[in-house]
Amino acid sequence: MKPLTPLLRRAALCLPFVATAAFAQEAPAPALDEAQFRACLRQLQSTPAFRAITPATFARHTDGLRPDATVLPLLNRQPEFSLPPWDYLAMLVDAERVADGRAALAQWREALARIEAQSGVPAAIAVGVWGVESNFGRNLGTRPLVTSLATLSCFGRRQAYFRGEFAAALRILQEGHIAPDKLTGSWAGAFGQTQFMPSTFFRSAVDFDGDGRRDIVDSAPDALASTARFLQNAGWRRGQPWGFEVRLPPGYDTRSASRKNKRPIEAWRQDGLTLADGRPLPASLPSAGLIQPARAHGGGPAFLVGRNFDALYSYNASENYALAIARLASLIAAPEGTPVAFATAWPTDDPGLSRAENRELQALLLMQGHDIGQADGLIGARTRDAIRAEQQRLGHPVNGRAGQKLLRALKNGA
Predict the structure, then answer these.
(1) Integer Cα distance of 283 and 240 in angstroms
(2) Among the three residues 176, 199, 233, which one is the final residue of a domain in this structure?
(3) In this predicted structure, what is the pLDDT of residue 11?
(4) Percent of the chain clearing pLDDT 90 (strictly above)
(5) Contact at 8 Å (CB) between 80 and 321?
């Protein structure tokens, strides 16, 4: 996993959140010493990070608190870093989420228009973040932030980072911004409809609906405006695209290319790059870097990306994550019927599954007699065990991965 950022989270609370939950079931949680935990909390109370937290607030929210060991295996299992890009993008950007995004865009059109006018962040981008982060407010996470952040402050890696977030979470409660029963979210402490870390709440949260509260949990306008403020603060440039898919000339060497190594668009034109459909590169970006998410796997789609892609990247430091938001936003804004897939195929003969295809796969596994619970599209530990069993029976590589090959085999009655 890359270094944690001010907006670290599980990745998205929709399917990436589910993916990390599945990993947690497969990786046993360590045993934690509760006496050590209590001693750690006593020590934290006297540190500078907690200077603004009153003894009464600290005691109210930590007396009797027990550590949650299940958060620790997730530190190294974020799906944006552990899944191949075609699986990650297939889970997050599918026809179902695009349709939901267009419905959300229509429902909140007036508020989004005002947010875009004030911030310069396009409505579809704000909605794209919302879709990736919480499936448009449907999946906010249920872990109490105080418990998760207290645990991560005392055990595991990056304790200094999490201690700052723990103090910020207690400050949110102390100042009455969010009710204690509403301050729930991801294993890493992100909360709300677009998953802010507690410290980010104080930097970027906005009262957009005018009720006197920065309510990113129950107010979609507040959450969307706060997301736009975050991206604005991260350097979003009004009127510029995030980037575009490109076609590389035959044999083009991308080994030295990167998001950070930006060059004028004219330089890329001179190198022979075009848009994916063969048209000339537009002048809408003054400069861009080149990314190829599956380069290590032999190629796949390539993209020229500008400063606005960097702003998306700052939300959660993963190019796959930023690409998921960018692609979802582009499809939400595109005409209905625009293909979800990129113009260039991923370099695999076994592409990933959409959520609808995951549900179809699970229904087939249930028909085979596997006890996996409901066909809900969430690939957890029991589904992975069933997949392994079917892969072994069919002579496929046994890795527990849900892919097109297994789905086709089971659909064909293998």
Answers:
(1) 10
(2) 233
(3) 34
(4) 87
(5) yes
